[in-house]
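Consider the record:
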Amino acid sequence: QVRLVESGGGLVQPGDSLRLSCAASGRTFRSSVMAWFRQAPAKEREFVAAIRWSSDSAHYQGSTKGRFTISGDNAKNTVYLQMNSLKPEDTALYYCATKINSDYVPLRQAEYDYWGQGTQVTVSS
Protein backbone atom coordinates (compact mmCIF):
# COMPACT_ATOMS: atom_id res chain seq x y z
CA GLN A 1 0.00 0.00 0.00
CA VAL A 2 1.17 3.52 -0.80
CA ARG A 3 1.47 6.06 1.97
CA LEU A 4 1.56 9.79 1.31
CA VAL A 5 2.59 12.32 3.93
CA GLU A 6 2.23 16.05 3.33
CA SER A 7 4.15 18.77 5.10
CA GLY A 8 5.04 22.44 4.75
CA GLY A 9 1.75 24.13 5.45
CA GLY A 10 1.35 27.03 7.82
CA LEU A 11 0.03 30.51 8.45
CA VAL A 12 1.34 33.19 6.09
CA GLN A 13 0.43 36.68 4.96
CA PRO A 14 -0.89 37.57 1.50
CA GLY A 15 1.95 37.72 -0.98
CA ASP A 16 4.10 35.23 0.92
CA SER A 17 5.36 31.91 -0.38
CA LEU A 18 5.23 28.33 0.84
CA ARG A 19 6.57 25.05 -0.44
CA LEU A 20 4.54 21.96 0.30
CA SER A 21 6.09 18.51 0.25
CA CYS A 22 4.53 15.11 -0.28
CA ALA A 23 6.67 12.12 0.60
CA ALA A 24 5.63 8.77 -0.82
CA SER A 25 6.45 5.40 0.68
CA GLY A 26 5.43 1.83 0.03
CA ARG A 27 4.93 0.46 -3.44
CA THR A 28 5.34 3.28 -5.92
CA PHE A 29 5.69 3.36 -9.68
CA ARG A 30 7.63 5.61 -11.99
CA SER A 31 4.60 5.75 -14.27
CA SER A 32 2.41 7.22 -11.55
CA VAL A 33 0.84 10.65 -11.51
CA MET A 34 1.20 12.86 -8.45
CA ALA A 35 -1.27 15.61 -7.76
CA TRP A 36 -2.27 18.31 -5.32
CA PHE A 37 -5.86 19.04 -4.37
CA ARG A 38 -7.24 21.48 -1.85
CA GLN A 39 -10.40 21.80 0.17
CA ALA A 40 -11.58 24.93 1.92
CA PRO A 41 -14.11 24.77 4.78
CA ALA A 42 -17.59 23.92 3.54
CA LYS A 43 -16.27 23.64 -0.02
CA GLU A 44 -15.71 20.71 -2.33
CA ARG A 45 -12.25 19.39 -2.92
CA GLU A 46 -10.72 20.91 -6.03
CA PHE A 47 -7.81 20.15 -8.31
CA VAL A 48 -4.72 22.33 -7.95
CA ALA A 49 -1.91 20.76 -9.96
CA ALA A 50 -0.60 17.42 -11.13
CA ILE A 51 2.51 16.02 -12.73
CA ARG A 52 3.11 12.92 -14.77
CA TRP A 53 6.33 11.58 -13.33
CA SER A 54 7.71 9.89 -16.44
CA SER A 55 7.40 12.93 -18.70
CA ASP A 56 7.36 15.82 -16.20
CA SER A 57 4.25 17.13 -17.88
CA ALA A 58 2.21 19.27 -15.53
CA HIS A 59 -1.30 20.69 -15.35
CA TYR A 60 -2.64 23.57 -13.27
CA GLN A 61 -6.04 25.01 -12.58
CA GLY A 62 -6.55 28.54 -13.83
CA SER A 63 -6.38 30.47 -10.56
CA THR A 64 -2.99 29.04 -9.59
CA LYS A 65 -1.19 28.76 -12.92
CA GLY A 66 1.69 31.24 -12.94
CA ARG A 67 1.83 31.36 -9.14
CA PHE A 68 2.15 27.68 -8.26
CA THR A 69 4.70 25.19 -9.56
CA ILE A 70 4.59 21.44 -9.11
CA SER A 71 7.81 19.45 -9.27
CA GLY A 72 9.21 16.13 -8.18
CA ASP A 73 12.40 14.54 -6.89
CA ASN A 74 12.41 10.90 -7.91
CA ALA A 75 15.42 10.08 -5.74
CA LYS A 76 13.44 11.14 -2.68
CA ASN A 77 10.04 9.92 -3.91
CA THR A 78 8.76 13.37 -3.12
CA VAL A 79 6.59 15.86 -4.97
CA TYR A 80 6.53 19.57 -4.18
CA LEU A 81 4.14 22.43 -4.64
CA GLN A 82 5.85 25.81 -4.68
CA MET A 83 3.24 28.47 -3.94
CA ASN A 84 4.07 32.11 -4.58
CA SER A 85 2.02 35.29 -4.26
CA LEU A 86 -0.39 33.58 -1.94
CA LYS A 87 -3.88 34.99 -1.60
CA PRO A 88 -6.53 34.53 1.09
CA GLU A 89 -8.53 32.48 -1.41
CA ASP A 90 -5.71 29.92 -1.36
CA THR A 91 -6.55 29.07 2.25
CA ALA A 92 -7.42 25.38 2.37
CA LEU A 93 -6.37 21.94 3.46
CA TYR A 94 -3.98 20.75 0.77
CA TYR A 95 -3.92 17.07 -0.11
CA CYS A 96 -1.43 14.99 -2.00
CA ALA A 97 -2.74 12.17 -4.17
CA THR A 98 -1.38 9.62 -6.60
CA LYS A 99 -2.74 7.64 -9.51
CA ILE A 100 -0.85 4.41 -10.13
CA ASN A 101 0.26 3.44 -13.63
CA SER A 102 -1.38 6.27 -15.52
CA ASP A 103 -0.21 7.49 -18.90
CA TYR A 104 -2.20 10.70 -18.59
CA VAL A 105 -2.91 13.26 -15.88
CA PRO A 106 -6.33 12.83 -14.25
CA LEU A 107 -8.09 16.02 -13.23
CA ARG A 108 -10.82 14.55 -11.04
CA GLN A 109 -10.22 13.48 -7.46
CA ALA A 110 -12.22 10.28 -7.89
CA GLU A 111 -9.63 9.01 -10.34
CA TYR A 112 -6.81 8.94 -7.80
CA ASP A 113 -5.86 5.82 -5.86
CA TYR A 114 -4.20 7.07 -2.68
CA TRP A 115 -4.41 10.20 -0.56
CA GLY A 116 -2.48 11.83 2.23
CA GLN A 117 -4.02 13.36 5.34
CA GLY A 118 -3.51 16.93 4.20
CA THR A 119 -1.56 19.96 5.35
CA GLN A 120 -3.24 23.22 6.28
CA VAL A 121 -2.41 26.44 4.45
CA THR A 122 -3.84 29.64 5.87
CA VAL A 123 -3.28 32.98 4.15
CA SER A 124 -4.36 35.89 6.32
CA SER A 125 -3.18 39.35 7.31
About this structure: DSSP finds no helices and eleven strands in the chain. The two ends are 40 Å apart (CA to CA). The chain has a mean pLDDT of 91. Residues 72 and 79 are 4 Å apart (CA to CA).
